[in-house]
Amino acid sequence: MNDNQIYTEYRDFIYRFLLKYLKNKELAEEITQETFYQAIKSLHQFDPHKGTKFSSWLCQIALNLAKQALQKNSRQQHLVDKLTTNLEEGSGDIEADYIVKERLGVLYDAISMLKYSDKEIVLLRIEKELSFKEIGAVYGKSENWARVTYYRAKQKLIEVSQDES
């Protein structure tokens, strides 16, 4: 079975599995794509003689990726919520407010270092809160193109933030 056949045969199954687990269409789509990327990369490790079904193996990869994404999103959302709350309310502590604004500035500096189209997509998504379908329409591309481009840009931002830490 080649890569396209694997994707075609199991894509809907994995997507529905992730959608039930995550209850988020966009995240389920992202993790579905990442699942097949990781599975194809690790296909040589799958041993059908161990009695494991291929679909179960894919579900395990998807579940691991989903758990990682939920943990990462939880940490990121907590930071964004904290930064937003601090900026809106102001802590009364000038030094703390300055640090929060500096961190937000670092994030926007990292975004500005992305290539132009990636930067625009990230800003449309986080500032304007456009859906992937709307972003795709803005660029005359598909919803999937917008989702994949945003995911890749987000990965670059994560790499940059980890390099600076």
What is the number of strand segments? 0
Radius of gyration: 19 Å
Q: Percent helix among the residues?
A: over 70%
From the N-terminal CA to the C-terminal CA, the straight-line distance is 42 Å
Pairing-aware structural class of the strands and helices?
mainly alpha
Structure annotation, total helices: 7
Order of helices and strands: HHHHHHH
Strand content is under 5%
The backbone outline, from C-alpha atoms, is globular
Mean pLDDT level: 81
Largest sheet, described in full?
none
Low-confidence stretches: none
Structure in words:
With 165 residues, the chain is mainly alpha-helical. The chain contains seven helices and no strands. It has helices at 3-22, 25-41, 54-89, 94-112, 116-126, 132-139, 143-164. Helix 5 (116-126) crosses helix 7 and helix 6 crosses helix 7 (143-164). It is globular.
